[in-house]
Amino acid sequence: MNFSVHPVPNVPMIHPGDDLGALLCDALGQAQLGPQNGDILVVCQKVVSKAEGRVVNLNTVTPSPFARQLAAMTTDKDPRVVEVILAETSRIVKMDRGHLIVETGPGYVCANAGVDESNSLDDETVILLPKDSDASAHRIAAAIKIRAKREVAVIVTDTFGRPWREGLVDFALGVAGMEPLLDLRGQKDLNGRELHHTVHAQADALAAAAGLVMRKGAGIPAAIIRGYAYQHADGGAAKLLRSREFDLFR
Amino acid sequence: MNFSVHPVPNVPMIHPGDDLGALLCDALGQAQLGPQNGDILVVCQKVVSKAEGRVVNLNTVTPSPFARQLAAMTTDKDPRVVEVILAETSRIVKMDRGHLIVETGPGYVCANAGVDESNSLDDETVILLPKDSDASAHRIAAAIKIRAKREVAVIVTDTFGRPWREGLVDFALGVAGMEPLLDLRGQKDLNGRELHHTVHAQADALAAAAGLVMRKGAGIPAAIIRGYAYQHADGGAAKLLRSREFDLFR
Fold it and tell me: Counting beta carbons within 10 angstroms of the beta carbon of residue B135, is it exposed (0 to 12), middle (13 to 18) or buried (19 or more)?
């Protein structure tokens, strides 16, 4: 089976309270990409968070002494931004050389708790990760179903760095309508030996593929993946998060 | 721009000494996927290593006392396999709960130095990573150019686990014909603020996308990515490897 990945242009600037699913549906139609059953709609976290009002005006933030101390250790962070990061943090995984790698409430491990200063509404505003990205993905899928009468899976993504490797890649934060993991265990290799370690993180791979056509800076915050066969399932990106107990790097 | 990802079926079982580039070219032709200029051919490491004779017969391996000790700490590893892993290892990054995460000679950080027991030639054989995956990628690209008179980029991939996240994803081990990193620094976001941290690991994202259609167990060890625009460049997957100095997790 082959699949294709299409950027979704013409998504307007998103503001708190916007019906993102409806706006994406319109943009898909304009791009001759009207949703089809089995499509996977990939949406970057930034527009989801904006629509959901997950933005903080830094003028309303008073940094704590700890936030000031952390900011002083880094070269480029506003203490108010550090305060916002800490409010989103359940645990600091690594604090070193100006970087702050943390675990967020829902369990994502990423730099700065995903708090983002670019592409926000203005210079004094930062964007948080969605509170529940699976719920966000489900809401978008439901809006598509109502408007276009089609069943699509939805993946909400963010762009993260990785240990050991340079460059950023998109990862799945929220998943609706498909299994995030594709479990091939029990199948046999070419010699008839059972595959032991073959659980593919298909939602992360789909997020990475979509990231190749999404350009947040150029106003392309979404992509459609068409032709990738998957089984319908509820979703739940938490399955992609390794529990602390089995993680060698926390 | 949209792109498509196509599995390459009908690649025969590969043996040491096989001309992999030629065999892939034949398989592409059979699949009506004759290479076009600008295609990206993604090939899994396993067939590259087999063609290059990067296989070890375990009957020729005598485990050292250290290898025996490590094997005793794990539940499922043959001491001879551990010996082979250690021979490919320049540094142990983490040795915990039966897992062995190491840095290989070329600088990849991965489990078991990429030494693989599945899909090998027989039960007594394991497969190593290619000695120089960039060179392997260049050889395949050169073979395609000679046979099909087309310029393609080639990415040699392997399937790795990741810290913090469940499931496996394909990564780029070797790159020929394109930049592994796409550097967008200096471009502006929607508000005119300069993007600071926007270097995309495009070769890793392309590897992940191709991994969605490659099924090593089902004899699909390669994929063609068509329509993804990139600038021709020499390549070099070492650019994807964070140097130890800047890595928080080594």
Answer: middle
